[in-house]
Design brief:
The complex is a heterodimer. In chain A, 44% of the residues lie in helices and 10% in strands. Chain A is built from twelve helices and seven strands. In chain A, the strands form two sheets. Chain A has a five-stranded parallel β-sheet with strand order 1-2-3-7-6, with helices on both faces. A two-stranded antiparallel sheet of chain A has the order 4-5. In chain A, a hairpin with a 2-residue loop joins strand 4 and strand 5. Chain A is globular and about 55 Å long. The relative contact order of chain A is 0.16. Chain B has two domains: 193 residues, Thiamin diphosphate (ThDP)-binding fold, Pyr/PP domains (Rossmann fold, 3-Layer(aba) Sandwich); 130 residues, Rossmann fold. Chain B contains twelve helices and 14 strands. A seven-stranded mixed β-sheet of chain B has the order 3-2-4-5-7-6-12, sandwiched between helices. Chain B has a five-stranded mixed β-sheet with strand order 9-11-10-13-14, with helices on both faces. In chain B, helix 1 packs parallel to helix 7 and helix 3 packs parallel to helix 4. The termini of chain B are far apart. At the A-B interface, helix 6 and helix 7 of A face helix 3, helix 4 and helix 5 of B.
Chain lengths: 332, 338
């Protein structure tokens, strides 16, 4: 489809919602980066700056009762899937108002009632789980789709192989979205993989492999929509590779010295936010003023979420042994 | 009707699948027409009645347990099966990091009602098909662990496990299955029971006194329960009266039952088929020592395999696994010295 056709298909309201989500992710991540550096937030963080088009493009192609599963870098997916930033900030501060009641933290962000499994922080770990979620849909003949987000590094894990192969032979409604940001922590993908495209691995499982520009939300949306629709109609899983880049470190204090300046500059020019804003302006979807107003609203809502998280109640000491088993207390 | 464990479990699983359409089986070689019905015939023929819900998988333990985890989160009740308990280690991330922890990580919002079945026991196959890995999982909060020694308990615990909202890992012993035909095991011990027609369950977390006695308590699961009973019969001739406890559930332990028995006898041995280091006996023994030190007339004693992998040689294997004679001799010494 041409850009014009995609824009017409998505429509003004949804496009504007997509930009808002991308702005929220960027603002959310920028703010918590400083809260961490200032020592005001506990734990560790893995940030999504630069990859906003991936989560928003894919999640915009989903229906309400579909489910996604994420990784140790889940903030973008959570915002894109519609988890409130208040519940996320509560979680980051380890408070009872968090989406996992303070038990999960940054790396386990999620809420199944909002269509997102608490994120799985073991690299590749969510892939076979998503196969199982999709298997449940298939066994119950529900028209739902399960989506796994994972990185380039995860595609070297055994769980990737087993999860994709099983999804393929069981022909379950799953979509496997590989966000290829080209680095596993500090290791460039070229050091750990002899192929250019991770999507090529799909052929090993007899499923469709597809590639989209992970810095372009419309391209991501178009390819994700195709994969999701095929899955829903029983045509089996797709491995969708999104070519993207982290415009930030791997985790909290990482200055990413392993990325060259030329490389960083090249990808900064592809920053998915300004380019999407330009498209929306050029097509008359949103004006300069409307975007400025949106940015102001996003800033305010992130600030509100931070205040909410900071001011929420600390857990009760008894909470440490709550919520492990359904049918019994924790034995001594 | 009298049945061995394999046959009784087959009927119990069939019943659960009939009762609840969210129950399904997933594993290797479990429902291939003309195949084995799993490594030990437990699921033999189930595919005839439930083709869609008996899912034969690739040889992919991460895939099996991951898929079971995901399906359970979405409201299904999978019964996931490994051919040998040793293969659980291939799926360790899914079992320990995902299935056991997801509910806690979610702040108590998720349920992961997976049943995991694993055949164990040192049975003529060498180090990688002969482990009793129970203690690895006893140190993993979030999973309940059962280990039935009789067909009656296997049925009752399977039903409880399937109906429970938490993950349950069920260890079954290769020598207790009573598997028939080409999957029959040499050295098998009869664990068959009369299986009543009614829909009974055996509650999780409840042990049972297999034999009452005065002088010493013997605690053993699976095959070691049967060997403990045999040892107690040998000791009758010496005038030593043994109480034999079968925990049936290894986590949560029925501490009340264990402590009551040891308070009465003042002495206890814990028998296990796996190495002594960091084993089941270490946990049960320390629970006794911590809780009722003043009742002990003799040191809490473990009878276990050596701290090595299981050897293949039948001669060595027999030395490796605690035999009834060794259990009886150890107890005799313990009583004489205390």
């Amino acid at each position: 489809m041409s850009k014009k056709e995609i824009i017409t298909e998505i429509g003004r309201e949804k496009l504007s919602g997509m930009l808002r989500k991308m702005l929220e992710i960027r603002e959310f991540e920028e703010r918590i980066r400083f809260l961490f550096l200032e020592g005001k937030m506990p734990g560790t963080i893995h940030q999504y700056i630069g990859m906003e088009a991936c989560a928003v493009g894919v999640c915009s192609a989903l229906q309400k009762d579909d489910v996604i599963a994420s990784t140790h870098r889940p903030h973008g997916h959570a915002i894109a899937r519609g988890i409130s930033m208040e519940a996320m900030m509560g979680e980051l501060y380890g408070k009872t108002t968090g989406c996992c009641r303070g038990k999960g933290g940054s790396m386990h962000m999620g809420d199944l009632s909002k269509g997102m499994l608490p994120a799985i922080a073991i690299v590749g770990g969510n892939i076979p789980i998503v196969t199982g979620m999709a298997l449940a849909f298939k066994l119950r003949k529900e028209m739902r789709v399960a989506v796994s987000f994972f990185g380039d590094g995860a595609s070297n894990e055994g769980a990737f192989h087993e999860g994709l192969n099983m999804a393929a032979v069981c022909n379950v409604p799953a979509v496997f979205v590989c966000e290829n940001n080209q680095y596993g922590a500090s290791t460039n993908i070229k050091r750990v993989m002899n192929i250019e495209n991770i999507a090529d691995r799909a052929s090993a499982y007899g499923i469709r492999g597809d590639i989209a520009d992970g810095m372009n939300v419309l391209d991501v949306y178009e390819h994700a929509k195709g994969a999701v629709d095929r899955s829903r109609s029983g045509e089996g899983p797709t491995l969708l590779e999104l070519k993207t880049y982290r415009l930030c470190g791997h985790s909290r204090r990482d200055p990413n010295n392993y990325m060259s300046d030329e490389e960083k500059e090249y990808w900064e020019k592809k920053d998915p936010l300004p380019s999407f804003e330009d498209i929306l302006k050029a097509d008359g979807i949103l004006s300069e003023e409307e975007i400025a107003e949106m940015k102001k609203e996003v800033k305010d809502s992130v600030q509100k979420a931070i205040d909410f998280g900071r001011e929420s109640h600390e857990p009760d000491p008894g909470d440490v042994t709550r919520g492990l088993y359904v049918t019994m207390e924790v034995p001594q | 009707m009298k049945m061995g464990i394999a046959e009784a479990l087959r009927k119990a699983i069939h019943g659960e699948m009939e009762r609840d359409t969210s129950v399904f089986c997933i594993g290797e070689d479990i429902g291939i027409p003309g195949g084995y019905g799993g490594a030990f015939t437990v699921t033999l023929g189930l595919e005839k009645d439930f083709r869609e819900r008996v899912i034969d998988t690739p040889i992919s333990e991460i895939g099996i347990f991951g898929a079971a985890c995901g399906a359970a989160i979405m409201g299904m009740r999978p019964i996931a099966d490994v051919q040998y308990g040793d293969f659980l280690f291939c799926a360790m991330d899914q079992v320990v990091d995902q299935i056991a922890k997801l509910r806690y990580m979610s702040g108590g919002k998720l349920k992961v009602p997976v049943v995991m079945r694993a055949p164990v026991g040192v049975t003529g196959r060498g180090a990688q098909h002969s482990q009793n890995p129970e203690s690895y999982f006893m140190s993993c909060p979030g999973i309940k662990i059962v280990a039935p020694a009789t067909a009656y308990d296997a049925v009752g615990l399977l039903r409880s496990a399937v109906r429970d909202d938490d993950p349950v890992l069920m260890f079954e012993h290769k020598l207790l299955y009573g598997s028939k035909g080409i999957r029959a095991e040499s050295g098998s011990v009869d664990a068959s029971s009369e299986i009543p027609d009614e829909d009974y369950t055996v509650p999780l977390g409840k042990g049972v006194v297999r034999r009452e006695g005065r002088d010493i308590t013997i605690i053993g699961s699976l095959l070691m329960m049967h060997f403990s009973l045999q040892a107690s019969q040998m000791l009758d001739a010496d005038g030593i009266s043994c109480e034999v406890i079968d925990p049936r559930t290894l986590w949560p332990l029925d501490l009340e039952l264990i402590l009551e028995s040891v308070k009465k006898t003042g002495r206890v041995v814990i028998v296990e088929e796996s190495p002594k280091q960091g084993g089941v006996g270490a946990e049960i023994g320390m629970q006794i020592t911590e809780n009722i030190p003043d009742y002990l007339l003799a040191p809490v004693t473990r009878i276990a395999a050596p701290n090595t992998p299981a050897p293949f040689s039948p001669v060595l294997e027999k030395l490796y696994v605690p035999q009834p004679r060794r259990i009886a001799d150890t107890i005799k010494r313990l009583i004489e010295e205390s």
